Amino acid sequence: MSSPHVLVMPGPAQGHVIPLLEFSQCLAKHGFRVTFVNTDYYHKRVVESLQGKNYLEEQIRLVSIPDGMEPWEDRNDFGKLIENFLQVMPGKLEKLIEEINSREDEKIDCFIADGNMGWSLEVAKKMNVRGAVFWSSSAALVALVFCIPKLIDDGIIDSHGTPMSMQMFRIAPKMPEMNSRDCFWAHIGDLTTQKIFFDLLERNRRAMMAVNFHFCNSTYELESEAFTMFPELLPIGPLIASNRQGNSAGYFWREDSNCLKWLDQQQPSSVIYAAFGSLTILDQVQFQELALGLELCNRPFLWVVRPDITTDANDRYPEGFQERVAARGQMISWAPQQKVLNHPSIACFLSHCGWNSTMEGVSNGIPFLCWPYSADQFLNERYICDFWKVGLKFDRDESGIITREEIKNKVDQVLGDQYFKARALELKEKAISSVREGGSSYKTFQNFLQWVKT
């Protein structure tokens, strides 16, 4: 009997590709064949970032289909992207499944769709392929999405998803309190984009109802209330490459591994690691204030500065900044983040609080300084600071700026109080125990392997 064949489709964003590709690596390690289907645009970026690296298991094949947009068009215009891919991708995906299934020894045993690509399960169902859903976010966020009908009934949002007021609410007694900002669909672009995204969420939610497996890159130990509230949701995280002694893949930029040699030269628990994911954009005033804040801390720092992180690419750093910090600061365009956070020299993680970054920091026992930018990042910040108590929030001044003095103050607080590190190490043990034999995520994974094989 040939080994099982799984088709996997992530959402078109780096924070969705990385954990699903890691999940695919785990499947491949257990003898499964995986066809991983990105959009053409992101497939090209992933392949380029992997050049010269043997990071993928040999049973994984990377393929792609068009997203309906031209290569030069802006994929951060989510309204346009969604409208285009809904027109083009269902037909292309159907054709891909047909083509794969026409080869006798290649037939697909299961299709795994990203939660944001739930519409693709309609295609799988039409093609008689069993489906599963993978969520790259927190269980709390998934619970929020599935509570949308109740939020409408309770008058928290209207039928288009727009918050009715700035009220606080809870979707379960012991979950983090939420406010309208956590209705992430209402904070993406203009009103037209928000409506398009909300309609997509509703379509995805309906398509996912009949699916047997709903995976979430989280653990029962970290989010017991959310998993209790939505028992169909199963923990599968944290999906970290070091759990299988491998390398993480799926980046859209080529990583600068030289920073690991620089970290080797630093004292244990001395370095501030600052990274803001793949989408955060800072205006020039805030960017410069962050630079001056890192300088003011007078500690070693490793700062990931994407080429497109600020609105002004010219003279982005304050005058003389690079020369003044040259002896203790490193600015790089992209980092091998999981390896960085696992390095003994890292003291704290100044983060945008994307869920992957949150899981990676927690899994390495690193305290946080939280700088959320959009979407679910504010909810993740509340988990980090208010629920798990492994980090601090920044306060903004009357102009909405996080000042250099505020940065220094919060860095000093987190690194000056051993409580944060002790809590972070406790949380690390809870997270990692879930993927060990007998843990909740380990059991989910084993059950899925058996289900696909039957």
Automatic annotation (TrEMBL):
UniProt keyword terms in alphabetical order: Glycosyltransferase, Transferase
Family matches, as Pfam families: UDPGT
Signal peptide: none
GO MF annotation list: quercetin 3-O-glucosyltransferase activity; quercetin 7-O-glucosyltransferase activity
Gene3D superfamilies registered for this protein in UniProt: Glycogen Phosphorylase B (3.40.50.2000)
InterPro entries noted in UniProt: EF_Hand_1_Ca_BS, UDP_glucos_trans
Keyword Nuclease: no
Family: Belongs to the UDP-glycosyltransferase family.
Protein name (Swiss-Prot/TrEMBL): EF-hand domain-containing protein
